[in-house]
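In response to reviewer comment 3 from the previous cycle, which asked for concrete evidence that the modeling workflow produces usable outputs, we include below a single protein chain processed end to end. The sequence was submitted unchanged, and the resulting structure tokens are shown without manual editing.
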Amino acid sequence: MLPPVALLIDIEGTTTPIAFVHDVLFPYARAHLEAFLADQATDQAVAHELAEVRRMESGPELATLRRWMDADAKVTPLKALQGMIWKAGYASGELRGELYPDVAPALRRWNKAGLRLFVYSSGSVAAQKLIFGHSVAGDLVDLFGGFFDTRVGGKREPDSYGRLAIGMNLPPVEVLFLSDVEDELDAAAAAGLRTCQLVRAADGTVASDRHPTASDFTVIEALT
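The workflow returned the following structure tokens.
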């Protein structure tokens, strides 16, 4: 089989430690949520997401958002609002995007070698660009050909990956999907994508017996 033409890359548990997301980003968003909504509720983008919150659930938006945060719900308006809050944190220097040390060098090598790179995460596209644009390894956004979030569809739904392949203008078989979550890899494989699970020791990932596995991005290079 020929090497893949493109890599579709998850973030949490794949490029970025789960602890950074759960122990840094999520608490930061929760701590700033109420003040952000009070200050920005009339902003058009914020108002749009709040309308989506009300459409999905009745009751006060703040209470709904906090409940979704507590449940780590993969809900598009929550993710969009979190991304807006994080933007201010990155701009102030309070936040920097954490990456595993093997990630940035591999991304740069792959980009230089002509591999097309894309991101697919449950976090909003804006939040994805913030992590890579303000990363500990510098601004990596230009290495990627595109960013996708749950507006494409859920990450455990095969149809989402079919739509992604169309969005990348590639046959599914030419795309290698990297994620730590077995159910996501199952969905991608069902859509015809190649798969590889990142088994990060620091995250305690349980290795799959249905997909190739790699401990870090240097191992993945053997697959490309």
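The domain at 21-92 is CATH 1.10.720 (Transcription Termination Factor Rho, Rna-binding Domain; Chain A, Domain 1). We consider this sufficient to address the reviewer's concern, and the full set will be provided in the supplementary archive.
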